[in-house]
From TrEMBL:
One of its GO terms (biological process) is tRNA wobble uridine modification. Residues 12-133 form the Rhodanese domain. InterPro entries: AAA_SelU, P-loop_NTPase, Rhodanese-like_dom, Rhodanese-like_dom_sf, SelU. Pfam families: AAA_SelU, Rhodanese. Keywords: Selenium. This is Rhodanese domain protein. It comes from Desulforamulus hydrothermalis Lam5 = DSM 18033. GO terms for molecular function: tRNA 2-selenouridine synthase activity. The keyword Magnesium does not apply. It comes from the Bacteria.
Amino acid sequence: MTDEVTIIDALQMKDVCFVDLRSEGEYAEGCIPGAVNIPLFTNQERARIGTVYKTVGPEAAKRLGLELASPKLPEFFNQIGELVKDKKVLLYCWRGGMRSKYTTSILNTLGLPVSRIQGGYKAYRRFVHRYLERERIPHKVIVLHGLTGTGKTLLLHKLNRQFLPVLDLETIAQHRGSAFGKIGLPASPSQKDFEAQIVQRLMASEKQGVIITECESRRLGKLIVPPAVFNAMNGGYRVLLYASLPVRVKRIIEEYTDGSAENIQQLQYSTGLLKKSLGLKVVNDLSQKIAAKRFDEVISYLLTHYYDPLYNYPDGPSQDYDLSVNCDDLDRAAIELAQWVTTRPEYRVPVESGGESYADRGSFEECEDQEGVFI
């Protein structure tokens, strides 16, 4: 394995482990999906080097960087030594500068077969940007529509287990896209990580030609669905999911009220946000029922008086859609939808990839300016 690879080659490799050498703060803002963070410098150390670089000069910054990094080499060797036993290890920093050059050189000298990504994380971000800057993604999108509780996300999970191409935006975003969207879910990713995970799934489905997703608005919480994805959704196949009210109520209760006190508190808070839409008296009544754990009454009311009129989807088969699927039984629905998807003319017709142009490294001058700097 060569000691330097382009981001295009890196993303096409199998059995690879990306190691992010940037500080924990840089890593939290965005990383290559699945990357392990083994920072060469902490946030504070990186800030010190940056200050020295600006106030004293690059040579002093290099010396400080070496001074801070040298004591960490034994632990670096041990950690990355474990990773190379099972994977090809690719290191990267911000621009492919001294952090990754230094670490790669030392580890190679010590006998560990690691490589660095040319252009670093910035090259990866450029790749993601190029992939998503088109008017629309090239995949034919199959969009699931339906009232709340029809099981759209659950159905996506079942289709994914059948190895069909799925883009589950709500799971990536850790947000269900409504006033109740964060109940029981962990923190949402950054916009950069949201886009990165979307591109990762789109790349994985390029040979299948289609991708299945759920109808979403332009925003999921604070995250923005990339226009190229949103535009393709608007021009995709439209599949209507429908289910009986009792089934929908049962699903939502299972999803939103798993018995934890925190989820109940979040349900109370989210219901309070609907005062303007439902009125104070109704919200207070719903809050009392939530406290009494009368969830079936609460959810049934919210569906019939708020969510169903808001989304205004049919509650049964409709000729306005390319396909209508009864989702009272999600296992049967998954079989029916999978059979329909695999008969689409676009299925398994490979689509053009994206992101390659100018993604590898950036201009010579841009990268050359950073080669000798530890920050």
